[in-house]
Write a structure and sequence with these properties.
Elements: H1 29-33, H2 68-76, H3 124-139, H4 147-168, H5 173-192, H6 203-223, H7 231-241, H8 246-253, H9 257-260, H10 263-276, H11 280-287, H12 292-298, H13 302-316, E1 324-325, H14 326-333, H15 337-346, E2 350-351, E3 356-358, H16 379-385, H17 390-394
Helix pairs in contact: 3-4, 3-5, 4-5, 5-6, 7-10, 7-12, 10-11, 11-13, 14-15
Length: 398
């Protein structure tokens, strides 16, 4: 007796067109083919930033940073963050929430939960006010420590802001202002928290949300007709952060010529060209011309560039009798002598007692994973910060 075979079922991960994590993904087949859609974005749970269909988007009516109902529930469940507790009630059981400091938490979409209730949604003006509070009063505070906890609080609340924006399909100038501050915060955090333990800071999660917010912001620039004074800054930041990525470079080349030829974008293009040509000497030299936030965006590529420099020199100057001056190598790497010696030893490059470097293509080795700490070689970025405050950096005044 022949039995009908049950239809074969595929999991989401088995589908040929299933997107992989951590990358910009095309929204549909048309955009996959279209050359003008270089960067795309996708929010958790399948939410998209663009309008879907013709139904009317909900409009929030909550005029506080945290809806009253949520504040009551979190207060009763003792789920308030210490940054949200009313002064003087810290020892109460449970402590009281401060309506002026409490901020709506990010919550994942759940079955049966209505996320479109107007009283739980904050309108664009309140969302912008919330972001300004998170940056100016929390992230930029000199009294709140440690900064890993500050980052965790601000990061979660910014996700809540983004969620409200998506549900209401916020667009226009308020959307741009919110996204610009969010991108600056995430770029700065990627530098400041580099090397922190994963339980305190996960660079991959930060990168995922930075790419999503940046992609949304660049789409806002493209879709709108109004002038955006900070567009040059963020177009350059996007390329510097995604150095060597073909889609990022293609996006820049599709910009109008007057914008593409501005100083910040021209410099970013030159650095990207040096990176693609594996010319680390030129890249590191050009990096000196970047401002602090641009250097924060570039910093994750500095280890690779210095590694390439030592690798190229290990082949070009590989000779038993050849010696390269340590002080000259330190100048090319933009490091002091002690850090240059440490970096050389990490890659198996010999440094003699009389400060001479002995390159050998057979001796060059890759360091063990986790042994080379990026944060130790942040001097190119640290020197540019000087007396800049967190507030001036994220508000774009640096």
């Amino acid at each position: 007796m022949n039995r009908r075979r049950a239809p074969r079922r595929f999991s989401h991960s088995q589908r040929r067109d299933a997107p992989t994590g951590g990358e910009w993904r095309p929204r549909n087949q048309e955009q996959r083919r279209g050359p003008d859609k270089a960067w795309v974005r996708q929010e958790e749970g399948g939410e998209r930033h663009e309008p879907q269909g013709k139904e009317t988007a909900p409009r929030g009516t909550c005029q506080t940073m945290c809806p009253a109902h949520e504040l009551q529930v979190r207060e009763a469940q003792n789920c308030l963050h210490r940054f949200e507790i009313l002064a003087g009630t810290e020892t109460n059981r449970p402590p009281c929430g401060d309506p002026l400091r409490a901020v709506k938490e990010y919550s994942r979409p759940a079955a049966g939960k209505d996320a479109t209730t107007p009283t739980d949604l904050r309108p664009p003006a309140v969302l912008l006010k919330t972001v300004c509070y998170l940056i100016d009063d929390i992230a930029a505070s000199t009294n709140l420590h440690p900064w890993t906890e500050v980052y965790g609080f601000v990061f979660d609340r910014l996700r809540g802001v983004k969620q409200d924006m998506i549900i209401q399909r916020v667009a226009g100038s308020d959307c741009v202002l919110i996204l610009e501050r969010t991108v600056r915060f995430l770029v700065y955090a990627s530098y400041r928290l580099c090397g922190e333990p994963l339980r305190l800071y996960d660079p991959r999660i930060n990168d995922t949300h930075l790419q999503e917010n940046l992609s949304w912001l660049l789409d806002c620039y493209k879709a709108g007709t109004e002038q955006h004074p900070n567009q040059e800054e963020f177009q350059a930041l996007g390329l510097l952060y995604n150095l060597g990525l073909s889609r990022a470079a293609r996006h820049i080349m599709e910009l109008p010529e007057p914008l593409r030829s501005t100083p910040a974008i021209s410099l970013a293009l030159s650095i990207n060209r040096a990176y693609l040509e594996r010319n680390p000497v030129r890249l590191l030299r050009l990096a000196q011309r970047l401002n602090f936030l641009q250097s924060c965006a570039l910093h994750r590529h500095l280890v690779t560039s210095r590694r390439d420099l030592l690798h190229v020199f290990s082949h070009g100057y590989s000779s038993r009798n050849c010696r390269f001056p340590l002080h000259r190598l330190a100048q090319l790497l933009f490091l002091d002598k002690s850090l240059t010696v440490q970096l050389c030893l990490s890659y198996g490059v010999e440094v003699t007692q009389d400060d001479q470097v002995v390159f050998s293509k057979t001796a060059f080795t890759e360091p063990e994973q986790g042994k080379l700490h990026c944060k130790r070689y942040h001097n190119i970025v640290a020197e540019k910060q000087r007396d800049l405050t967190v507030r001036s950096i994220i508000d774009g005044c640096a």
